[in-house]
Amino acid sequence: MVVDFFRKKNQTDSVMSDMEAKQKRYEALVQAYNRDVYRYAYWLVKDKHIAEDIVQETFLRAWRSLDSLKDEKAAKAWLITILRRENARRFERKQFNLVDIEDHSVADVNATSTEQQIENEWLRRQIDKLAPEYKEPLLLQVIGGFSGDEIADMLELNKNTVMTRLFRARNQLKEALEDDQNRGQSNG
Amino acid sequence: MDELEFRRQLYTNPRERSDALIEEATRTPKNKKLFDDMQQFECKLEQALNVEVPDALAERLILSQSFDDSQVQYRRKTRVHIAMAASIAFVIGLSFSLVNWQVPAGYDDMGQVALQHVYHEMPYTSGVDEQPSLQTINAKLARYGASFDELPGDVVYVNHCAYAGSPAFHMIMKGKMGSNVNVFVVPKTTELQAVQSFADKKMHGMVGSLSHASLVVVGERNEPIEKTLAFLTADLNQAI
């Protein structure tokens, strides 16, 4: 009789195919959600490089605990939750020098900008000026596509609070936009 | 739906398309204007939030995961090796402490013979690299009732040798640290005192048990020979 050499190989094979399945699942997750997760991160930190770092960390953590994701429909909310935790951890680790957005030279605004681009950039600044508790529900709704109930779950708020904040966020932005337009008209 | 509720719904979720909302939107020209306004505003908002995503972000995410993966696998593998080596050492320790009493005193122990042998042959074997084939190795191993399915590593020398007067299998392979590691397969009939491990200032060695032979591994002190012993024991097919 020969010591069963092949059993070890079979086990290795099944481990490999498990790994391959997990790998495929991960890659699908990356392809499906990397853009939304990045955009969300960008609006949280307003810095391309930090945003990408956080997204990297988020997906690595997602990979390490991929087995705990049971329901694919919950994948996006799961990723955003990891991302928010990752962002909070960043603040625990190190207090970054926060640069006021007004100090940045904004790349989009240049000599060839159309009126629409200028308005777009203007609106971005207004969004960034929103208080975080108004901004985040808005990001979750518009970028994430989450419902009021889902946002309430993720932010650990009740749904009415979320709805009120969404209302106020849009109200503030809309008023700022109207003020700006009125000023523009009276100046012109 | 009253006007206030209409306004509230449009501001909290302008993309909502419930029948009640649409009905209210078409009820008066003023409502129609608010509805259109909010749709237009939402377009602007979506456009503003839709920042550019860096090129090849997805590829970079997959790449960094692949590096993370290799680390995890490596860690798992070494853990398995250490666990294997520890359990083998434990079993060897247990069995040899029992066997020790049955061997008449006065004989050389297996470890001392191995060390003497290695030192004695060192001038001849230190520079060799004969790259023996799997067939050559198995042909020599056959006598001791064992074989490999594939080359067990970077083998530089293989031969029969005299081990305290009895025939034994002697193989030299490159160790993890680059020095030569000596492997002996010694038939159980040899009346040598059994030990589980041995060492001197320069070399150390371990003895493992095969079904009809002992497996002795000797290497320089920085060589992780317990790993070598563990994987050789696992890879050797032993005919009974």
List keywords for this structure.
heterodimer, A: 188 residues, mainly alpha, Rna Polymerase Sigma Factor, Chain: A, Arc Repressor Mutant, subunit A, 2 domains, 7 helices, B: 240 residues, alpha+beta, Protein Transport Mog1p, Chain A, 6-stranded antiparallel beta sheet, two-stranded antiparallel ribbon, 48% helix, rod-shaped
Short description:
The complex is a heterodimer of chains A (188) and B (240). Helix content of chain A is 74%, strand content 0%.
How does the overall form of chain B come out from the CA principal axes?
rod-shaped
Structural class call of chain B reads alpha+beta
- From the alpha carbons, calculate the radius of gyration of chain B and give it in angstroms: 36 Å
What name does the CATH topology of the largest domain in chain B carry?
Answer: Protein Transport Mog1p, Chain A
The proportion of strand residues of chain B reads 15-25%
- Average predicted local confidence, pLDDT of chain A: 84
User: Order of strands across the widest beta sheet of chain B?
Assistant: 2-3-4-7-6-5
Characterize the main sheet of chain B.
6 strands, antiparallel
- Estimate percent helicity of chain B: 40-55%
| H/E topology pattern of chain B | HHHHHHEEEEEEEHE
Strand content of chain A: under 5%
Number of domains of chain A: 2
Low confidence ranges of chain A? 102-111
* Count of DSSP H/I helices of chain A: 7
What is the general shape of chain A? elongated
Distance between the termini of chain B: 88 Å
For CATH, the homologous superfamily of the largest domain in chain A is named as: RNA polymerase sigma factor, region 2, helix turn helix motif
At CATH level 2, the architecture of the largest domain in chain A is Orthogonal Bundle
Q: Give the C-alpha Rg of chain A.
A: 22 Å
